[in-house]
Design a protein that fits this description.
Layout: E1 6-12, H1 18-41, E2 45-49, H2 57-69, E3 74-79, H3 85-92, E4 99-103, H4 111-124, E5 130-133, H5 139-158, E6 162-166, H6 180-187, E7 190-194, H7 196-204, H8 208-221, E8 223-224, H9 233-252, E9 257-260, H10 265-269, H11 274-281, E10 284-285, E11 288-289, E12 295-297, H12 301-314, E13 319-327, E14 332-336, H13 344-347, H14 352-356, E15 360-363, E16 373-376, E17 382-392, E18 395-405, H15 410-420, E19 426-431, H16 435-441, E20 446-451, H17 455-465, E21 468-471
Parallel strand pairs: 1-2, 1-3, 3-4, 4-5, 6-7, 6-9, 8-15, 9-12, 18-21
Antiparallel strand pairs: 10-11, 13-14, 13-20, 14-19, 15-16, 17-18, 17-20, 18-19
Helix pairs in contact: 2-3, 3-4, 5-12, 5-17, 7-9, 8-9, 9-11
Bound molecules: L-Fuculose open form.
GO molecular function: arabinose isomerase activity; L-fucose isomerase activity; manganese ion binding
Domain L-fucose isomerase C-terminal: 335-469
Protein name: Fucose isomerase
Length: 476
Amino acid sequence: MKMRKRRVGIITFSDGREFVHKELLEMNKHFEDRLVKALEETGEIEVIRASEIVWKPSLAKKAGIELLKAQVEVTIFNYAIWCWPHLTVMASLFAPGPYLLYGQINPKYPGMVGLLAAAGALEQIGVFPERIWGEPENPEVIGKVLKFIRAASAVNRLKGERYGTFGGRPMGMYTAAANGDQWLKEFGIDVEQIDQYELVIRAEKISGEKRRKGREWLEKLANVIYDGKQLTPEILERQVAMYEAAMEIIREYELDFVGFKGQPEMTNNYATMDVVEAFLNDPYDWNGSKEPIVAATETDMDGALTMEIFKHIAQTPVLFADVRHYFEDKDILDLCNSGTHATYFAGKSFDPEVNLKKVTLYPESFYFPAGGAAVKHFAAPGRVTMARLARQNGKYVMTIVPGEFLELPENEMEKLAKDVQIEWPHAYMKLDTDMETFLRNYPCNHIHGVYGDYTEELVHFCRLKGIEYRILGSQK
Ligand SMILES: C[C@H](O)[C@@H](O)[C@@H](O)C(=O)CO
């Protein structure tokens, strides 16, 4: 999967007395060099430096404009000596936020004083920057910087995105239907409404060659169980055609992420959306590797939004699941949903051959008379961060649920799945919190997440957006 580097601007400030500035210039530059090197070494960041160290107002303005023109996603204001705070304020009028005030360790000069004076000045005018202090070579310090940058770039990457909702509120699910005006106002996301019929019309026009290519690839790499009724080669090809149709619409309408109603119209009359949803979320399909396109089932808008935030923060595929069952005796939460588990989760690999070996395309059950394949697998073990953005009394609240996907013997996973829903994918999770706390606080039926520890990034995201958050479990 191709990672888009996060574009970060840096402005280093100085003393407003020219003779002091000149005296300390080489040292100041050296501190900037060290920070730039450490940022670039993360492999996630492209640094844009202002052309000059800022010691007078005209240079503050010039530096800010340079970063604005370079379309940076975050600006770091860098302090190693005493810096006159109005220079930061003036640069902030042009340099794109969010802002991180970075303090270098340089005890012989009042760098920390400069940082705090600038922070206070910004806050007086309603701009609330993050502050980090330390040696750029310290992995813990640069780790903190990176977490902030991931969250800040996610805030900016959402801006101007388009969400396509195929069909309306599914099966009476209030939590799936959000308000487009609120999305635009709070996140800068435009919502496009598309009729599911458009998918059917376009799917019918997808060539036999394209259908066959998808079906044969799936048959070759995964285990396909045809039952002659709910799942036949023809129905699987119909799901492939719907995927191709969805891709066509996504490109044509310039959509960044999507949701499909699916139930009951498509699942009663045409085919389930499972193959479409899983492979949109995957970093590949039968045509090759691609960027994952977040796809929520049941047109769950806030679910899709949570996933899109995760995608920008972690730059990996994102899981969508139902909170399905709790095995009390084993303390295992079963996350399971028919459609949207990307096959990436089966093997945690970007290589489809690795993951699809562990995937079975199962005939759908009685809920879905039109038939189709459910994309069944078990999520690979590992530390995960799950979360959900939900509206409570009109306001967004983020519930963050850290935990672990468990390593269980294959036969035990099959046994657990049989007791729940054999044909659907499962992720067996051990929560950091206890089940009672989870049930009392979790805001809806769907949950989303990625491998890795991203709690701090989500917290930064919420702070930047003024969203209330709660963490169910400790931050590890
Ligand atoms: C079979 C049901 O209609 C499921 O689709 C339902 O349990 C859900 O997935 C709800 O999120």
